[in-house]
Amino acid sequence: MGRPSTPLLTRDGILRAALDLVDEQGPDALTTNRLAARLGVRGPSLYHHIANRGEIIEGLRELIVAEMDATAASLRPWTLALDRWARSYRAAFAAHPRVIPLLVSTPVRAPAALAHYASAVTVLREADWPDHLVMPVIETVESFLLGSALTLAAPNPPAAAEGLPPELAAALAARTGDPSDTAFEMGLQALIQGLEHHRRTLEE
Questions:
Q1: Domain with CATH 1.10.357.10 in the chain
Q2: Which residues of the chain does CATH 1.10.10 include?
Q3: pLDDT truncated to tens, each residue of the chain (204 aa)?
Q4: What angle do CA 170, 186, 159 make, to 5 degrees?
Q5: Under CATH, which architecture does the 11-50 domain have?
Q6: From residue 95, how far is each of 19, 23, 28, 32, 185 by CA, in Å?
Q7: Does domain 69-203 sit in CATH 1.10.357.10?
């Protein structure tokens, strides 16, 4: 038998091509025609493996979640679990910041992502967080992490940029190390400490 006239498609191959496409060209580039062209096939060929664009977006979520540390939920106390999960979450999304606008615009349905959330719920309940605050805690942390991941992809304003107010220029010039990492470390520490303080006040 000769070689197939068109490339053999798989769901995983389609999703990884879609991730590469968004990484390179941004969220608006995720169209059936562009993805099919990248894979060397016609658009309808994709639908033998992927139902629609929404399924592709959820597939991208699956790929990013797979890069996170799945063992974090086994750690105790809950603050250690949160710290480990937060770092792996930021690293995974920081590697693909252009995917974030797609993911935040659609409801989470990917089983792997839902499993991560379920693990977080278990950790927080075991730490005696009341049920009505479990999801707010998760959403608060996730908002911080998504913002931090987007910051990694944004250009830092140069301290010597023309037209900056002198106070701002001086503050920018005084930074040391990687500004994004410094902000992340400060923010994560403050967030975890603040949440733990709030949890303890609930017990009083």
A1: 69-203
A2: 11-50
A3: 445 555 589 999 999 999 999 999 999 999 999 999 999 999 888 988 999 999 999 999 999 999 999 899 999 999 999 999 999 999 999 999 999 999 998 999 999 999 999 999 999 999 999 999 999 999 999 999 999 988 877 777 666 667 888 898 899 889 888 888 999 999 999 999 999 999 999 987
A4: 20
A5: Orthogonal Bundle (1.10)
A6: 11, 9, 18, 23, 18
A7: yes
